[in-house]
Amino acid sequence: MGCGSSMETQTNPVVTEVSSGMQSRQNAAGVTNIVEQYVRLDEQIGKLEGTCPGPRMATAEAWVDHLQSKHEAMLGLDGMDVAPLRERGRASDIEQEEVYTMGTRQGNQIVANTPTKDLAQLAYNLGVIGDSRKASMHEDFFANLSESALYLLSIRYYGELLEHTKQRLKTLVESYAELNELYVKQDGIIAYISGGTYMTRLEESIDEQLETARDTRDKLGSALEQWRICGLLLRAAANSSTQALKQWRQLARMIDPKQKLQWALDCRSLLHASMVSLEAAQLALPHVELKYLSHRQVLAVKHCNTYLITDIANKARYEHTTRVFTSYEANMSKTCTWLYETFNNTLRSDFDKAEATVSGLAKTLRDHREEIFATVRK
């Protein structure tokens, strides 16, 4: 009682064992020691609860599942038995890993054999970087090659995002496990002192208010993780678009075709990384319409990126692509700023208020229990 958040916590199977252990130590430690221990534990719980590891963990788990499904679909694994096996949960971790590895091995080999190097050599041999006539003649051919290469890049980027998210989930799982350990210890102390029952009506009333406040705080904490994911992805998208624009603008001053081609391919990869990050950000926060960026503008960037290699030699097209990339970079930066400002003015403010309410009630309950626990132990 009084120490579980709105997230489900583990039961306490060791109350008797903890209590008997405390009984044997009490005579030596003194009456106040156990009460002080309760206070320290409650303060620790309050700090850790404030990070909402449980609600954030649930959100991160859902995000991992979403990314896993998308990545498998892109690799062509969505028709296999990988997802049903995970859902049933009856196979061991090793068995699940073996099934998934068999399916992904071939897909990963395809991703590794990206045609980018061949495309670069072919573009150089055909002279499409410096000759607008040759570039126009071969533009559809190179556009098809670019689409294939960019699709494989998408698979790679989503795979990297999935691994990064799994690491985030692992951190949250560890924090949540630590919080549950503290709950067990605190429950043991409370059960030892009060027998697991409320000792005053005030204690019961404050505890009920605290549970309601925790529930509100935890729901906001879950939403907080969604916005965190979206914000980090948007920031990555903005950074990549800025780097890509710098690369693209420098192409006009380059003379060596091989160097120009390499910089163009790097620019293409950066822009694609930006658009994949943007797409993932929208998936992470589907009910929020991102300001300043339109679907039409994103399609224009994708089109320019697809024809990027053969547009370099044509001055008019190069300038058009520059304008498209410049507008995208500016709006990407605006969108990122808007999201963080909106977050700080709404959800962050609401969460801080909810957390302040929880902290205040927790302190009131802690102070009250410290007083009555000290009295009953005397």
Automatic annotation (TrEMBL):
<feature type="coiled-coil region">
    <location>
        <begin position="162"/>
        <end position="219"/>
    </location>
</feature>
<keyword id="KW-0175">Coiled coil</keyword>
<protein>
    <submittedName>
        <fullName>Uncharacterized protein synr</fullName>
    </submittedName>
</protein>
